[in-house]
């Protein structure tokens, strides 16, 4: 009997040891291909859903209102907060390593100069006042702590942690708690967890279950995910019925909106938008278009949710397998807004961070029989953080930046709190007769000047971050002629701005920056033949793009009509 017991103990010990050292293998080339696809998928989702964002609140977007995907749309993803905030996180990791402290990550975030909203904006304001994380995300200092912010910018955490859910969870504790708390953090850890499994799994149900294992089971966020899984299994053909169930419980029931920053139709709470991500993944059943469109049509944050869905599903496929319509117009040389990362740089940085993740997790990097590198990844059981709830928060950490840390926070200069307008109608009547101008801000010396190597250039500036400078004219287009609006536009050497042109619809939306111009200038010839014989109001906008030095340089604004 003693010998039998000893044999059983040895056998059990061997089984436990084998389980503890169980690994999965992922060729590095395959990792890069899938990781690159994950970034592309985010860009596709956010660009496709962008025109619908928060236009449908508490209602399903009609099918006929879904924008048509065109390949040139993808590059809009370079200017979206879903992605450019992630570049700040990655830069912190690149410079300071995977073990970067939450305080250093907070300093880096405080020094960002892009446009932010909700939890991100509140956190950055707190950081700049000396409130260090995690208090910058605590409900006492951040009324948006359950908002969607970290959820929409957490994709990076899974993309640099293939098969390693505990790394994605840990990154959420470092970066997610800068601006969020409780469900706001869990939303990002849930998304990150799905990405870590997307390198090995394609079944959407299993991906959702993998993400669910990364967050506290007692959280309302986990409850929402379990509900959508159950409703899907009970009714796998009717996503709109499941949407109605989500609406009733997570939008209309006050018990699930106790920490929402808004109690009306507008709902930017992480839970309900996370439920829409799950809705798209499950009912899309792996179809890229269908999955993105369902998460978009669910409404509310209808560009961010498709961005998460697209990123996860694209990761399962890999860049090489993605249909050309999504990638044929991708400008890989272009940098993300407020970042030095373009696609080649981003992919290299992510690979280096993934290598660190693999080794820190106890994995290995081996060479196969063909000389190719392979990640050997330990199979991990996710260990979620402790339960936190924004409506019943724990005590603050009393975290404040030291004098030395505050000295490292040097945010860019801000716009004047009370901007002033300048009247440029006399200037524009000389420069481009027939046009009128309004809401031009006084910054950067607007008027007619010699700039950018050109003479007699009209310089304008937006009145504020939310109010563009607008030039307008009522145009009588001659019949039977082709009319072209010719623009030659430029930008400050260290600035950028957003150009928009409208008639009875939006005709042009183009960021004017170093990345989109040649020697600081861009020529645009806009064909207006469709308006022949009509009288139409044309408007040209110099709008903020969330940066600095947003003056627009206009070298040419003129119409040309030919038979």
CATH homologous superfamily heading of the largest domain: ADP-ribosylation/Crystallin J1
Shape: globular
Low-confidence stretches: 1-20, 414-418
Number of domains: 2
Radius of gyration: 26 Å
**Side-by-side strand order of the widest sheet:** 5-9-14-11-12
Q: So, CATH architecture of the largest domain?
A: Orthogonal Bundle
Mean pLDDT: 92
Helix content: 25-40%
Q: Using DSSP, what is the number of strands?
A: 15
The proportion of residues in beta strands is 15-25%
Explain the overall architecture.
The chain is of the alpha+beta class and 563 residues long. It has two domains: 30-406, ADP-ribosylation/Crystallin J1 (ADP-ribosylglycohydrolase fold, Orthogonal Bundle); 421-562, Jelly Rolls (Sandwich). Helices cover 40% and strands 16% of the residues. It contains 19 helices and 15 strands. It has helices spanning 2-20, 28-49, 81-96, 102-110, 118-128, 149-152, 155-159, 165-179, 183-198, 204-212, 220-234, 239-250, 270-284, 288-297, 304-317, 324-327, 343-360, 403-406, 425-431; strands at residues 23-27, 364-367, 373-378, 421-422, 436-438, 440-441, 447-451, 454-460, 469-476, 482-491, 497-502, 506-512, 521-527, 535-543, 552-562. The strands form four sheets. A five-stranded antiparallel beta sheet has the order 5-9-14-11-12. A five-stranded antiparallel beta sheet has the order 7-8-15-10-13, with helices on one face. A hairpin with a 5-residue loop joins strand 2 (364-367) and strand 3. The protein is globular, with a radius of gyration of 26 Å. Mean pLDDT is 92; it is low at 1-20 and 414-418.
């Amino acid at each position: 009997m003693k010998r039998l017991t000893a044999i059983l103990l040895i056998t059990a010990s061997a089984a436990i040891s084998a389980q503890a050292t169980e690994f999965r293998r992922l060729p590095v080339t395959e990792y890069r291909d899938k990781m690159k696809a994950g970034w592309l998928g985010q860009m596709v989702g956010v660009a496709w859903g962008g025109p619908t964002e928060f236009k449908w609140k508490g209602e399903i977007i009609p099918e006929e209102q879904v924008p048509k995907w065109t390949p040139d749309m993808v590059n809009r993803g370079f200017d979206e907060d879903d992605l450019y905030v992630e570049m700040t996180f990655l830069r912190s990791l690149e410079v300071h390593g995977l073990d970067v402290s939450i305080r250093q990550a907070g300093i880096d975030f405080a020094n960002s100069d892009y446009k932010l909203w909700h939890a991100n904006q509140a956190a950055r304001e707190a950081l700049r006042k000396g409130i260090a994380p995690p208090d910058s995300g605590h409900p006492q200092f951040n009324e948006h702590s359950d908002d969607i912010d970290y959820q929409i910018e957490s994709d990076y955490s899974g993309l640099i942690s293939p098969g390693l859910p505990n790394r994605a969870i840990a990154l959420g504790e470092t970066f997610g708690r800068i601006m969020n708390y409780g469900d706001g953090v869990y939303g990002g850890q849930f998304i990150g967890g799905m990405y870590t499994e997307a390198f090995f799994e394609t079944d959407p149900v299993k991906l959702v279950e993998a993400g669910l294992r990364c967050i506290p089971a007692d959280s309302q966020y986990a409850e929402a995910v379990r509900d959508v899984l159950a409703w899907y299994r009970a009714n796998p053909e009717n996503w709109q019925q499941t949407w109605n169930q989500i609406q009733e419980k997570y939008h209309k029931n006050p018990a699930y909106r106790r920490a929402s920053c808004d109690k009306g139709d507008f709902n930017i709470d992480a839970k309900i938008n996370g439920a829409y991500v799950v809705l798209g993944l499950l009912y899309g059943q792996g179809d890229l278009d269908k999955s993105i469109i369902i998460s978009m049509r669910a409404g509310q944050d209808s560009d961010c949710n498709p961005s998460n869905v697209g990123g996860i599903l694209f990761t399962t496929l890999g860049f090489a397998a993605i249909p050309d319509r999504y990638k044929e117009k991708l400008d890989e040389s272009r940098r993300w807004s407020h970042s030095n990362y373009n696609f080649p740089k981003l992919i290299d940085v992510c690979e280096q961070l993934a290598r660190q993740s693999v080794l820190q997790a106890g994995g290995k990097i081996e060479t196969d029989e063909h000389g190719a590198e392979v990640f050997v990844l330990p199979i991990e059981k996710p260990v979620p953080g402790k339960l936190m709830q924004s409506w019943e928060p724990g005590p603050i950490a009393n975290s404040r930046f030291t004098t030395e840390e505050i000295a490292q926070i040097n945010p860019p200069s801000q716009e004047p709190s009370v901007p002033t307008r300048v009247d440029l109608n006399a200037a524009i009547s000389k420069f481009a007769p027939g046009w009128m101008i309004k809401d031009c801000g006084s910054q950067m010396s607007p008027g007619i000047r010699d700039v950018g190597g050109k003479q007699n250039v009209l310089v304008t500036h937006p009145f504020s971050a939310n109010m563009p400078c607008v030039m307008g004219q009522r145009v009588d287009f001659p019949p039977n002629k082709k009319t072209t609006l010719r623009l030659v536009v430029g930008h400050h050497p260290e600035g950028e701005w957003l150009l928009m042109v409208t008639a009875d619809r939006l005709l042009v939306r183009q960021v004017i920056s170093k990345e989109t111009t040649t020697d600081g200038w861009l020529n645009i010839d806009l064909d207006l033949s469709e308006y022949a014989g009509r009288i139409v109001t044309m408007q040209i906008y110099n709008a903020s793009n969330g940066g600095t030095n947003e003056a627009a340089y206009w070298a040419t604004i003129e119409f040309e009509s030919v038979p």
